[in-house]
Design a protein that fits this description.
mainly alpha, YqzM, YqzM family protein, rod-shaped, transmembrane helix, 43 residues
């Protein structure tokens, strides 16, 4: 075992963090898509 394996900064599950990142990025692009559709509808 090396030094970094012994001294872990966080013990949280990586799947939870990656799931949150996926949801946040999906919502970001969904909001951009909705705004673009609303602008397309208005013009």
């Amino acid at each position: 075992m090396n030094e970094f394996e012994k001294n872990v900064q966080t013990k949280r599950n990586d799947a939870i963090d990656s799931g949150v990142a996926f949801v946040v990025s999906f919502l970001f692009f969904a909001i951009i898509f909705v705004i673009a559709q609303a602008i397309d509808l208005i013009w």
